[in-house]
Specification:
By secondary structure, the chain is of the alpha+beta class. The protein has helices at 3-15, 71-77, 101-115, and strands at residues 20-27, 32-33, 39-40, 59-69, 85-89. It folds into 2 domains: 3-90, Spore Coat Polysaccharide Biosynthesis Protein SpsA, Chain A (Alpha-Beta Complex); 93-122, no CATH class. The strands form 2 sheets. It has a 3-stranded mixed β-sheet with strand order 4-1-5. Strands 2-3 form a two-stranded antiparallel ribbon. β2 (32-33) and β3 (39-40) form a beta hairpin.
């Protein structure tokens, strides 16, 4: 992440009077929980097209790219997401966690396209 982006995030933290700021990316997935006792996080009987989901009902995933927080609030709460918190939307191509070979392959493909290189791992 570029230094300018981090400065911008800090300004947002201060300007909007947030105590903490979490990096997120748009989620285009319909999520289910509990494989043995399935529960959807959406009304699957009236499943919307993704592009028709109202702005206020869209979901985001934490990217883990950064967490900004006020030191005093963190020390009091013991949690980096504390007090009045806000979200900072990061690009989707910066939102992939590398937890599997598939994740690595996706990131490698993105880097190859971005840098026009043949193999990131070599």
């Amino acid at each position: 992440m570029q230094a300018i982006a981090l400065i911008l995030q800090f300004v947002i933290l201060r300007g909007k009077k947030f105590d903490s700021l979490v990096s997120v990316a748009n989620s285009h997935r319909f999520v289910w929980k509990n494989f043995l006792n399935p529960n959807a996080d959406y009304d699957f009987l009236n499943r919307p097209r993704r592009q028709d989901i109202p702005e206020t009902e869209r979901t985001f995933i934490e990217t883990g790219s950064f967490y900004l927080f006020k030191r005093a609030k963190f020390l009091t709460s013991g949690n980096r997401i504390c007090g009045r918190y806000g979200l900072y939307l990061t690009p989707e191509n910066e939102a992939t966690d590398i937890d599997s070979f598939v994740d690595f392959s996706i990131c490698e493909s993105l880097l190859i396209r971005k840098n026009n290189r043949e193999n990131f791992a070599a």
